[in-house]
Amino acid sequence: MQTTITIDPIPETQPRPAVRRARLHVEDSRQAQAQTAAGRKPEWLRIKLNQNDEYWRLKSLMRGQTLHTVCEEAFCPNLGECWGRGIATFLLMGDICTRSCKFCNVQSGRPLPLDEDEPRRVAESVHEMGLRHVVLTSVDRDDQPDGGAHIFAAAIRAIRDRQPGCTIETLIPDFKGDRAALKIVVDARPEILNHNVETVPRLSRWVRPQARHERSLAVLRMAKELDPTVMTKSGVMVGLGEEWDELLAVMDDLREADVDILTIGQYLQPSKLHLPVARFYHPDEFAALADEARARGFQWVESAPLVRSSYHADQQARGIRGW
Fold first, then answer.
1. The pLDDT value given to residue 11
2. Backbone angles phi, psi at 30, to 5 degrees
3. Architecture of 4-321 per CATH?
4. What is the pTM of this model?
């Protein structure tokens, strides 16, 4: 028996090639279906870790500066590719999160006190790596009055001092919707400000119980209000049980909030303790979602099974503004 994935019909007034392909049935082979049923991933999600000299150099550098990367903490499938190219996403404020999202592999619990010297060490690492673009993210620090916003700002300033010309993306938590905390980060003027909605509204409380879809949208809107020149970005995972029309509605929500960049990737279960995968999307479906997003006016779209928030972040910065 073969598995058939059917996409809702799309009006012929939108003749986008990838969408037309996705309207066709995506026929999986019996072997791929058997692998999926047995808990193994389909062929298009197979990854070969690239551990070249640059990978080991970066790994050693991180250990020497006692820094964390979301690449490792979240078991990112692109770790080998990105580290092999000398690109990493720094995880600020420790490796223990005050929230307990059901898709995330970062440890949840009571974090250690903030390390105010961390921004300097991050900047030193960026300089040693010779980076032209860097991504800064963090665990949620709801234990802090500003959610740790001042650490983001300090890291941005330190990188600018130590590595002039390096562009910076910040992947921030929602700071509980606190405008003053968000302003601290925006005032440090990162080139890209990223905050992920992660999933569709219907699943949001189940997938990330301490967050809210509307609050995430409010954060993205506020960022543009505070600095209309900042590029904003958000991301969605698929495969958690959402419907196609719900994904399109999230795109509409994000465009209404004037978000510039969208990432869409396949959810992969980090462990048996996390949410199961409802289904694997075929690459043609990711292509169709990308076409839908571009038709809605996003300036840059990354949509593929292995895409994660920071994937090709350096290309996004250069591609949109020519940095």
1. 43
2. -60, -35
3. Alpha-Beta Barrel (3.20)
4. 0.80
